[in-house]
Amino acid sequence: MNSSCKSRVFNIISIIMVSMLILSLGAFANNNKAKADSHSKQLEINVKSDKVPQKV
Predict the structure, then answer these.
(1) Region class of 34: left (phi > 0), else alpha (psi between -120 and 50), else beta
(2) Which domain holds residue 8?
(3) What is the pLDDT of residues 7-51, one digit of tens each?
(4) What is the number of domains present in the chain?
(5) Residue spans of alpha helices (H) in the chain
(6) b/e per residue, 9-22, with b = 16+ CB within 10 A?
């Protein structure tokens, strides 16, 4: 392999690695957002159920 072919392969591999890193960070952030949303909905349900008047 000559040097231009090696550098081209290296560039392609670098681009693939960077894009995989960006995609994995995006998936991680999306997963955390989904967990936070479900937790906030659970808190909202708990608050609503606490406001229900209790029969004595």
Answers:
(1) alpha
(2) 1-56
(3) 999 999 999 999 999 999 888 888 777 777 777 777 667 666 666
(4) 1
(5) 3-50
(6) eeeeeeeeeeeeee
Amino acid type, 48: K
Cα 8 vs. chain centroid, distance in angstroms? 31
Residue whose entry in the numeric block shows the structure tokens 């659970």: 42
Rounded-to-integer distance, Cα 31 and Cα 26, Å: 9
Q: Could you give the CA distance from residue 7 to residue 14 in angstroms, rounded to a whole number?
A: 10
